[in-house]
Design goal:
about 550 residues, mainly alpha, 2 domains, two-stranded antiparallel sheet
Length: about 550
C-alpha cells in the first residue's frame, strides 16, 4: 500500500506524550536496576527477587494494561466517540469493580500458596534461595490489586486523550524502590535484607502509582465509581462485548506470560545468576519496545477503534514505519555496543566486567528479535481495534511453544560456557546436555551463558509470530504491506550505522564505558538518521524537523 510521505499519523503528538512518560519511567527503572545490581549483583538474593517479581507481573499483565487494551479501551473509546458518556461511565465503573474483586481474590491465593508457587515457578531453587523467594512473593503480591487498578486508570485516561500521566506514573513505583536501595547501600545491608526491603518498596510504589492516577481520573470523570452490580440495563451489551474480548485477551496475555515463566523455570536449572541476568537484559530490551512500539500502539488504539478498514490500514502502516525506524537503530546499538551499554549502566559495585559481558550477550540475542517484537505490537493492536483478540492469542501460543523448544535445545550446551577475565571458556568433562550438577550451578565466581540460549529461542519465535500476525492482518483488512516493505528501506541506514558504531567503539575503546557508550551511540545515531534522510525515509525527516524546532525554541528562549 502506497502512503503519501507527507501524511502524518494523527496520533503522533499522543505517541510522543506516551513515549515521554515511558522514557522517564524507564530511566528511573534503569537507575533502579543499576542500584539493584550494585547491591545484589547476580547472586542468590538477586535470583530470588527476580523470581518473586514474576507472580505480581503475571497477574498484572493478565488483568492489566495488555488485556484492557484489547477489550476495555476499544469499547469505552467507541462509547465516548458516540457521545454516550454516561453509559461509558457506567461500563467503566463495572469493569473497575470486577477487576478489583478478581485481583483481590488472586492476591489472597498467591500469598497463601506462595511456597507451591515458588516450587513450580523455580524448580531449581533450594535452601536459602527458595525460602527467600517464598517470603518475597508474599510481600510483592500485596501490591497487585493497586497495579491492576492503575492499568484501569490508564485505560480511562488514554480514552479521554490523556497520555503522559499514566505512562509517567511508574516513576513513583521506581522511586520508592530506589529509596530502599540507597538506604541499603548507605547502611551496608545484607543481600537478603536488601531484597526484603525492596519488596516492601515495590508495594509502596504501587500505592503511589495508583494514587496519582486515581486523582486524575476523579477530576476527569467524577461520575466513575467501581460497581459490582449484575445488570446494567442497556449497558449490558457493552459489558458483554468487553467480556467477549477480555477472555481471549487474557488467554493471549497469559500465553505470553507463560513464555516468561518458562524462561524463569528453565533459567532456574542453569548456573546461579541466569535469572538475574535475564531480568537485566529484558529491562534493556524492553526499553525500545516500550518507547517506540507501545507508545505508538497505545496512542493509536483509541482512534483505530473508531476507524473504517481503509483508515485502519493506513494508520497501521504509518505506525509500523514509525516504530521500525527507531527500533532498527536500537537493534544495532544492542548488538554492536551492548557490552559498553551494560557496563555504563550496571558496571559498578559488585557487578564486574565478566557480568557485563554475560548480560550483553543475552541482550544481543534478544535484540535479534527486537524489530519483529515491536512490529507485532502494532499488528496486535490493529486486530484488537477490529475486535479480534482470539487470533493474536493463538499466534502467541505458537510463539511460546517455539521459543521454549529452541531455548531448551540451546540453553544447556551454552551453560557449559563461562566468562572469565573477559574470555569465553568451556567447562570440560560435563557433557553438553542436561543440567550441570548442583555444586557447579551454585558457584558464583564466573557467569555462565545458558541464558543466551533462552534469549535466542525468544528471538527466533518473535519473527515467526510477526509473519503469522502480518498474514492475519492482511486477511482481515484485505490490503496491507508486508514486513519486508516496512523494514527493507532501512537496510542502508542500518549498514551505515553498524560501520559507524564499530568505528566509534574502536576509537574510544580506551575510555570508560560511561564515555564510550554515549559517544558511540551518538555517532552511530547521527550517521543512521543522516543516511535515512538522504534516501528519503520520511521518519528521518520528521525527526530532523522536530529537532530543528526544539533547537529554535531553545535559541529563542
Amino acid at each position: 500500500m502506497a502512503v503519501d510521505p507527507r501524511v502524518r499519523p494523527s496520533g503522533a503528538r499522543a505517541s510522543t506524550a506516551v513515549a515521554g512518560g515511558i522514557l522517564l519511567s524507564r530511566l528511573a527503572g534503569l537507575l533502579r536496576e543499576s542500584l539493584l545490581r550494585s547491591v545484589l549483583a547476580l547472586g542468590p538474593a538477586a535470583d530470588a527477587f527476580a523470581a518473586a517479581l514474576r507472580i505480581p507481573n503475571l497477574l498484572q499483565n493478565l488483568l492489566g494494561e495488555g488485556s484492557l487494551s484489547a477489550s476495555f479501551i476499544p469499547v469505552y473509546s467507541r462509547l465516548l466517540g458516540e457521545g454516550r458518556r454516561e453509559e461509558a461511565g457506567r461500563v467503566a465503573a463495572a469493569v473497575a469493580g470486577l477487576l478489583a474483586a478478581v485481583a483481590g481474590l488472586l492476591v489472597v491465593v498467591a500469598m497463601v500458596a506462595a511456597r507451591p508457587l515458588t516450587r513450580a515457578l523455580a524448580p531449581g531453587f533450594d535452601g536459602q534461595r527458595l525460602e527467600l523467594t517464598v517470603d518475597l512473593i508474599r510481600i510483592t503480591t500485596a501490591g497487585l490489586g493497586l497495579l491492576v487498578l492503575s492499568a484501569w486508570c490508564l485505560g480511562v485516561l488514554n480514552s479521554h486523550g490523556r497520555f503522559f500521566l499514566p505512562y509517567v506514573a511508574p516513576v513513583l513505583w521506581n522511586v520508592a524502590q530506589i529509596a530502599v536501595l540507597v538506604a541499603a547501600l548507605v547502611g551496608d545491608w545484607s543481600p537478603s535484607r536488601a531484597a526484603t526491603g525492596l519488596a516492601w518498596g515495590l508495594v509502596a510504589g504501587g500505592a503511589l502509582q495508583f494514587g496519582v492516577q486515581a486523582v486524575a481520573v476523579r477530576r476527569l470523570a467524577p461520575e466513575l465509581r467501581p460497581w459490582l452490580g449484575r445488570t446494567l440495563g442497556r449497558d449490558d451489551r457493552s459489558v458483554a462485548d468487553i467480556r467477549r474480548r477480555f477472555g481471549p485477551a487474557v488467554l493471549g496475555r497469559g500465553v505470553l506470560q507463560l513464555s516468561g515463566y518458562l524462561d524463569l523455570m528453565l533459567a532456574s536449572l542453569l548456573a546461579t545468576g541466569a535469572v538475574a541476568g535475564l531480568l537485566s537484559a529484558q529491562m534493556l530490551y524492553g526499553l525500545p519496545v516500550a518507547l517506540f512500539a507501545t507508545s505508538v500502539a497505545a496512542a493509536a488504539l483509541p482512534g483505530m477503534s473508531r476507524s473504517n478498514p481503509s483508515e485502519l490500514a493506513t494508520t497501521s502502516l504509518l505506525a509500523r514505519r514509525r516504530t521500525a525506524f527507531f527500533v532498527a537503530f536500537s537493534t544495532v546499538a544492542f548488538l554492536v555496543l551492548g557490552e559498553s551499554i551494560v557496563g555504563a549502566l550496571f558496571g559498578w559495585g559488585a557487578f564486574d566486567g565478566d557480568d557485563a559481558r554475560a548480560v550483553a550477550l543475552v541482550l544481543g540475542a534478544y535484540a535479534i528479535g527486537l524489530p519483529a517484537t515491536a512490529s507485532s505490537r502494532i499488528h496486535q493492536n490493529t486486530l484488537f481495534a477490529m475486535g479480534d483478540t482470539a487470533g493474536p492469542a493463538r499466534i502467541a501460543a505458537v510463539r511460546v511453544g517455539l521459543a521454549a523448544i529452541i531455548g531448551l535445545v540451546l540453553m544447556f550446551p551454552l551453560d557449559r560456557v563461562t566468562v572469565h577475565a573477559g574470555d569465553l571458556l568451556t567447562i570440560g568433562d560435563h557433557g553438553w546436555f542436561g543440567p550441570l550438577s548442583q555444586g557447579i550451578r551454585s558457584r558464583t565466581l564466573d557467569p555462565h551463558l545458558g541464558a543466551v540460549g533462552l534469549a535466542l529461542g525468544s528471538a527466533v519465535a518473535a519473527w515467526a509470530e510477526l509473519l503469522l500476525l502480518a498474514r492475519r492482518t492482511r486477511q482481515a483488512l484485505g490490503e496491507t504491506s508486508p514486513p519486508s516493505s516496512v523494514m527493507g528501506p532501512l537496510a542502508s541506514p542500518v549498514a551505515a550505522a553498524v560501520v559507524a558504531a564499530v568505528t566509534a567503539h574502536w576509537l574510544t575503546n580506551s575510555l570508560p564505558d560511561l564515555a564510550t557508550a554515549p559517544i558511540s551511540i551518538a555517532t552511530a545515531g547521527t550517521v543512521y538518521v543522516t543516511v535515512a534522510a538522504a534516501i528519503g525515509v520520511s521518519e528521518a525527516h520528521d525527526l530532523l524537523d522536530a529537532l530543528k524546532g526544539v533547537a529554535q525554541r531553545l535559541l529563542r528562549g
